[in-house]
Amino acid sequence: MLHTHLYIQLLQPPPTNRHALSFSAFSRRKFTTTTAAAAVPIGKSCFGKGVLNGVSRRSIKSSATTELSEVEDQDCKEPMKRAYPFHEIEPRWQRFWEENRTFRTPDDVDTSKPKFYVLDMFPYPSGAGLHVGHPLGYTATDILARVKRMQGFNVLHPMGWDAFGLPAEQYAIETGTHPKVTTMRNIARFRSQLKSLGFSYDWEREISTTEPEYYKWTQWIFLQLLKRGLAYQAEVPVNWCPALGTVLANEEVVDGVSERGGHPVIRKVLSLFIAEQPMRQWILKITAYADRLLEDLDDLDWPESVKEMQRNWIGRSEGAELEFCVLNSDVHERDIKITVYTTRPDTIFGATYLVLAPEHFLLSSIVTTVQSKYVEEYKEIALRKSDLERTELQKEKTGVFTGSYAKNPANGEAIPIWVADYVLGSYGTGAIMAVPAHDTRDHEFALKYDIPICWVVTPNDINGDDFEKAYPGEGLIINSSSSTTSLDINGLSSKVAASKVIEWAEKTAHGKKKVNYKLRDWLFARQRYWGEPIPVSFLDDSGEGVPLPETELPLTLPELDDFTPTGTGEPPLSKAVSWVKTTDPLSGKPARRETSTMPQWAGSCWYYLRFMDPKNSESLVDKKKEMYWSPVDVYVGGAEHAVLHLLYSRFWHKVLYDIGVVSTKEPFKCVINQGIILGEVQYMAFKDQDGNYISAEAAATLGAQAQERIPEEKVTKSGEFFVLKEYPNIRLVARAHKMSKSRGNVINPDDVVLEYGADSLRLYEMFMGPFRESKAWNTRGIEGVHRFLARTWRLIVGAPLPNGEYRDGTVVVDGEPTRDQLRSLHRCINKGMNPGPKLSFHHFISSNMVVTEEIDGTRFNTGISAMMEFINAAYKWDKHPRSIIESFVLLLSPYAPHMSEELWFRLGHESSLARETFPEADLAYLKDSTIVLPVQINGKMRGTIEVEEGCTEENAFNLASSDERISKFLDGKTIKKRIYVPGKILNVILDNKTVKVGSQ
Questions:
Q1: CA-CA distance, 1000 to 990, in Å (whole number)?
Q2: List of E strands, 426-535
Q3: For the whole model, what pTM was predicted?
Q4: Is the Cβ–Cβ distance between 478 and 469 less than 8 Å?
Q5: CB under 8 Å to 894, separation ≥6 — which residues?
Q6: DSSP 3-state percent helix, strand, coil across the chain (nearest 5)
Q7: pLDDT in tens, 540-550
């Protein structure tokens, strides 16, 4: 899933014949989460005369008036006043776009034209629908798509659904409703909301991961992985929840308990506790591509922070694997060796103990009888924790002595073996040599349990080994020599010593050089019902796994009435007995189908390819179409998917590249992460035990007993802080929180569209601030952009008639624009394109330049500000020339497409503006026609005047003489001569005689 899950509610689809006016009883200015405004029929017409794509204005007006009058009859008691008729305009143009397939990208495009593939990260269609945070990224990609179309690009801008997953299944279990039913209902809800916002998606390319026609190819990709040894089975630890009777994915476990219900979760290998039923999990060998996934990051035009997160997740390191022999009670070597991985083999003489992960496979073999009870208790506690909890640097280190010892191969000393949860079984070998003098975690552990600390590295600028805390850096090696093992690295630098230790270890069979990765192979199986079936069967007689022939795909999910967890760890699909029992089509032998399903990540790994060719039943994607559309040019989504989704997609893409399915090494050319829209700012005041207000900075000292939320109207700003209006000395705490039901701060976009219109919502979300930064919702802000749109409407259409309606057409004129008007327009275009040192959206889309990390600084609000300035200037004009207004409408259209289409139509155009030419700034109008001219009197600067280019000497002198600051130096003086350099300077030389200027 590529969006945060919202709690699923069973919602009835909104009525399709409901008009926005029917909601007028709702509270204005206060948005709720309980009601959804459906796509509404068109209202009263604002059309002029003529025909629009074969549909007469009269017939549209007649139909609209009839539909609207039915609603108004029901709601005439409380008419809703609107700044402009968005409630009529928006549904009309949404219907027009759909009926005329305005944004359809043909299957066969003119490949001589440039392409632009812009994609939103796949949404998970939850029952709660959208909140106002979701449209942020969708609006940005829609602006990009609309502008690129207007610039002559073939644009691919699709939408679909990542619809398999746990929330739908859990809801189905709770309600008894099949997950397919709720999923389809949720998709319909999401689709309706997205259409109501005017996004220019090609809905004919819509896909869902739950459709067999789609997951046929997900299964096909799995078979290709299986053929190449990149899919295998193994017994691995999983998150087992006894209360739910099922296995949970890592993302479904929070702080050691299940996300749903808060039940304890144990990390175990299923084969250890399902009686005589070992369960092997499917795993994908992503580690085989670790180096390529790492190296190819350098060529990607992604935010550096995202690339760095992927580098850290892959975690490539170079070091050594070293072997420590376990000793028996007589200090003799046993036939058991513990292999550790270390990036610092130079510190081997400082290893004073070993640590095994609680899940290490050798732990049960080395623990002594005396320590067995304590080790088992510790294991049980440790395995309830997540990997993140266990490796948290700030947490107190815990562990238990196993009772056994191992021999340090470098010096022959016996060192204790401990078990501790800060070591993970999934990293390295699941065991470490602990060097407390030179590792912070090991140092804390050694101090707590009184384990010896031996200093073996000293900084180059410090002598001696008397340190109070761990020194993890490199330096000169000390205390590192043994005549018994013939290893001596004293006096060497850390790097040289490390190489020498590896050389010694390989020569004496104590270890070898090793490149290691934090990246683990991908656990691919889920013991769930609502997911893609894995196309493998197991022969009854041998247990051999047999892939389903590709001609048999898709392997569809069976219909189950009971999809609840089995309680044994076996997947719910095991209940579909007739489906599970099958016959291998190749050998004819009886077999059992795999009953685990794929994880939700599977369907979202490759969906960007299917959008290129969504109806192809013969192949995953047509080669020619893939070669044209690949890679995705701009991919927009939340930063929470910076690692796993993007990494898994890159892995699958590289496999598909290797087998010739795709033509590019990487799937996404440019990735942009949008910020988060937080709830409205909340103001909190503190009170003491007597109920008196306490200023926020003194609350901790004075001991605040309670907090009180203060309404915004009772708050004012004083300097950098917010204070109570009534008591300005009482400072408040102002915070904006992430939107959540529990906080009651979720804003439903349906309510915003009802109150202000979709164009206002789109415009406001782009105007809130830099696209990548988090920002707080503010209702007054959307009121501001709504007023801007209303002013734009009135400027072009004119004031409303006495009955509240608007005249047909516009008030523009056909005359030639003045130079000032042209200058205002082209400054508006230019400011939107190039606002400053950071590349803006307009600059990026107009220059066809390679997208660089500067796109991270995209500021959509700059373009909106420029348009606001233009409208302010235009209100001062006596007349509004058609050529100027038409260009402005085109400039506005990517941001506010509904209003722009309506204005374009009223301006006399009979087709959509979606593919009109996007305006470009004319540099000739960007130069100022006036210049600042310095004025000197007798060679001394006395002021400046503003003159037109080409100003004559006489005009310049007259302007200087009338300037209040300069004229006082001329009053009563005789002019001897004037020196004038056009555009450079005016120097007035005075005579010594005191005669008034111009007098005789």
A1: 15
A2: 431-434, 457-458, 476-477, 481-482, 487-488, 511-516, 522-523
A3: 0.80
A4: no
A5: 142, 143, 144, 146, 147, 150
A6: 35, 20, 45
A7: 999 999 999 99
